[in-house]
Amino acid sequence: MERRDFIKMLGIAGVNTAAYAACSTYMQEALASTTIVKDMLTASAHCRKGSLADIEHVVILMQENRSFDHYFGTLRGVRGFGDPRPLQLRNGKPVWEQLQDGDYSKDGSITKPYQLPQGATPDGEGAAGGVFLQDPAHDYKSGLAAWNNGLMDQWIPQKGIVSMAHYTERDIPLYFKLARAFTICDAYFCSHNGATDSNRSYFWTGTCNGKAANSYFSGIGNGPRSDWKSYPESLEERGVSWKFYQDGLKWTTDQFAGNYGDNTLEYFKQYKEKTTAIYKKNQSVNSVLRTEVNTPSQFEKDISDNALPAVSWIVAPEAFCEHPKYPPHFGEYYVNEILRALLANKDVWKKTALFITYDENGGFFDHVPPPVPPVTGMDFFASAGLPANFLSEGIKITTTKSNEAGKEEGRDFNSENASKDKPNDAKETESEKQERESTRPLGMGMRVPLLVISPWSAGGRVCSEVFDHTSFISFLDTWIEKRFAAKGEYSKGPSFPNVSSWRKAIAGDLTSTFNFNSEATEAMDTFVDKTVPTKIFTKKEQTDAKAKEKAYFSPQNSDVNADPDVNKPTAMKQDRTQCDLLPVDYDFQVSFAVLPARGSFPASLRFSCVNAGKLGVSLTLYTYDQLGTTFLYSMEGKRPGGYQVTLKDNLFLLNAQSDYRCAVHGPNGYLVEALGNLESPTEAAFNFHYNLSRDEGGKILSFHFPNWPTANGTLKLINAYTGKETMIPNGTKRVDVATEDGWYDVSFVDAVNTDSKFLRRYAGHIENGKMSRTDPAIGMIYDEVTRVYIPAVV
Hints:
InterPro entries: Alkaline_phosphatase_core_sf, PC-PLC, Phosphoesterase. By secondary structure, this protein is of the alpha+beta class.
């Protein structure tokens, strides 16, 4: 049977269809000829100015095990391989240059992100998107070790060479088309630095309650099941319709059926009660793909019958969920079918928001340090009887301990550390016991992709607000209130209690991913009819795919060296084109000041942060040279009444005769650096304090010096974007700096003593509540000598 295809996209016809060899000819042709993006944009052109209340249907597809850089590191506009302010490793190299042995005290073999080779499929043909790829380690222990307290330097020892592999637009063309046409989030992090079940527990229940392994969920067997409240139960209580769409239940030996065990709620106690409504809605087969040629799937029926619920969760079969070893193209095909179904009823599409994300990074490299609560530092300082200044007052974190019987005590939903319970009947070594009883942060984990596809997210934009899986719960709570309160059907109750105080402060609610102020630019076009036959995978096709899964590709050093960009700077991998950047409400500033030794108190470096923005902020402070460690800080957004939030901490320098060097990384490319030497006269002359202000348009950034020192000295300001140098003599009260699309990167150095190591560097983006443009320095390299951005060249 042939059906009308309302879907006309921007053409992926140029892709080598041999890349789809593991699947059917139909899947190859359907993806190669799909015109879904163009049709969706055409159908969106009618959209008037609106609000969150105009969305009637939220559809969420969570796929498996891909990091942001792994998929989108080369995409224009995002913080990818061309990030001009990447983290610096302990050996002074950028984070891209991972050592294979993980020992940064000496030189060693380096592996940078590398493009998967074309023709790496078992039959030696096609784009890498069709590759059955080796599955890296993605458990909590190796994830925590690769993160390495924020140093981000143990990827290859923990995950292998495969972890540094990445795709390009040629490999995953549909996803790049969607990212260019709608909205992509480049600061969406998985909730937990580990495997599937704990992350999906955050997604559906707001927490994993310290359970940091699949063994607590899908591997529980006959053991005690989790039973804390899930978000679907909250929807049920409020009378909001919801449904799970899945092509089967549980994991099966047939990779084209079932749900790969990814419906984590089935492991919860309350979802075993077969007489309940939540069981029936969660544990029912509601197909997305057709199983008979002439019979639409349940997802198609619900859309065509205008019966799509308010909230829909889609759980894909193994073959289509993108978990290695299965290729990305299988997932693209599955997504294409979802989009086709939605657009088949234009009235439904016009009122729908579709989110596509991934439960975890799957062991694949990502370069951005994730936001992590300071639980380790808090626990260490508390045990030593010392004050810990890592957390602002509005965030509550409850730490736990293990008693003599090996049972954890003190946990609640504000706890952010892994469980300290001793496994039943487990025999532990002393080191294993110490590790279990230590305070280990659960996450956030690494960045994963998030695509937001809706008439109100069209435009090819980037959103750089920090999100995690609990952001979906925050979004649904916010949307339900707006949507149903507008109809008089809902009154706001308390927010979902499982989400911790820290995550509520740091992770946004996804509302910034939409632009409800767009004007229609063209009338609705007539759709181009295109017939694509419905496809059912034959047993032979499924058997062939399973054989290819067993013959998966395992990259070696020779494959790394085969990357055509292997001898080029990593920044050259990324498209330098700018695009629209959605506004987010970050407004914070970090400063450093040297405090000389006083009596028994050694010299220290005063870290201060003031947050005047609506959004909370997580910062990672790196100390190079002296302390050689990291510090984690978290602050909530401004308090009611507009009161700023302030956080201060003193970093005690180990040797008052030596150098210091610190860097603070924050959201949306924020970076502050402080370098100097306590013996240098520059420190006395330039130990200044500053305040920032900006004009309304975000074009001018002003530095104010209220306490300029009396010592003789002259600063030089260097604008990294323009190369302009400005002399700032002693007594100056204010200096203005022109931004580039709201972006700034300003260095203050000693203008007189050229041998001075003194540096204060401030880089970030000015927010003014309006649309701006992505960082123009993406794809360039920061020259640490001249303090300006220069082109990345071989």
